[in-house]
Amino acid sequence: HRTESLLTATGAAAGYHGVPAVRGLDLAVGPGEVVSLLGPNGAGKTTSLLALVGLLPLMDGSVTALGRPVSARRPYLLARRGVALVPDDRGLFHGLTVDDHLRLSRRKPSPEREKLIFDTFPALAGLRGRKAGLLSGGEQQMLAVGAALLGEPRVLLVDEMSLGLAPKIVQEMLPAVRDLARAEGIGVVLVEQHVELALAVSDRAVVLNHGRPVLTGAAADLLKRRERLEAAYFGAD
Ligand code: ATP
Asked: Residue limits of the ABC transporter domain (predicted)?
């Protein structure tokens, strides 16, 4: 069987000052699928995400989102059409409350969808009046992801959801996002440092090293072939 792809990269390259930081990126995310981008620091994961949403111009290859080529000239149009990025700094306004963020992110008032967010991240429910700057790291991350989901995205990309979070919180958040993505048919791209936790909720993964994909496959297979995974992850130059 073949599902439609919401986001597809083919031989994509992007970088800075004319030098590619990622090359040859192939990736496809369908409805309800989770694809992880893994790799050590500096491997090109964040660069890949920025290229996938048009915040960095492509130096080679192509990216198609929701059936249309991604153009770096108008990333806001992509956001409006339903491609949401949660950046690694979480993109919150510290002086605004949880409720403010949810109000600003939603497309239209939708009590059902709001309930879905609070069911997914119950810790947020008691914090609606609190300013984002006074939330814990985990609560901020739940707010960032929750607010993005309230915008009813068809594709959600999250940069290092687990950054600075206790493993226990990551263990709760990743499956919650995966379950919601499946239920709603949202395609998800995760950039993760927690390799095993990410693979446990992913359908597929791409391991980047030195800006190149060095291992791609079904998450279950990668978990079974640990030596190959480790070799790719820590790989030689
Ligand atoms: P990390 O896990 O540390 O966030 P990453 O896999 O997300 O790493 P990138 O942030 O994509 O890696 O960086 C890939 C390469 O591009 C690195 O060599 C990095 O130094 C370089 N780089 C990233 N951002 C810039 C920038 N704004 N200007 C120039 N070079 C950059």
From this structure: 1-235
- Whether the CB-CB separation of 202 and 34 falls below 8 Å is answered with yes
Question: Would you say 213 and 222 are in contact if contact means Cβ atoms under 8 Å apart?
Answer: no
Helix (H, G, I), strand (E, B) or coil at 175: helix
Question: Which residue of 23, 25, 45 sits with most ligand 1 atoms within 8 Å of its CB, as the best mutation to test the pocket?
Answer: 45
The mean pLDDT value of the chain amounts to: 91
Ligand 1 neighbourhood includes 20 CB (under 6 angstroms): no
Q: What is the pTM of this model?
A: 0.93
For a mutational test of ligand 1's pocket, the pick from 25, 38, 47, i.e. the residue with the most ligand atoms closer than 8 A to its C-beta, is 47
What tens digit of pLDDT does each residue of 175-196 get? 999 999 999 999 999 999 889 9
Write the residue with the smallest CA distance to atom 17 of ligand 1. 42
* Residue 47 alpha carbon, nearest atom of ligand 1: 11
- Side-by-side strand order, sheet with 155-159: 83-86, 155-159, 187-191, 34-38, 204-209, 212-218
Lowest-confidence region among 52-56, 63-67, 75-79, 179-183: 75-79
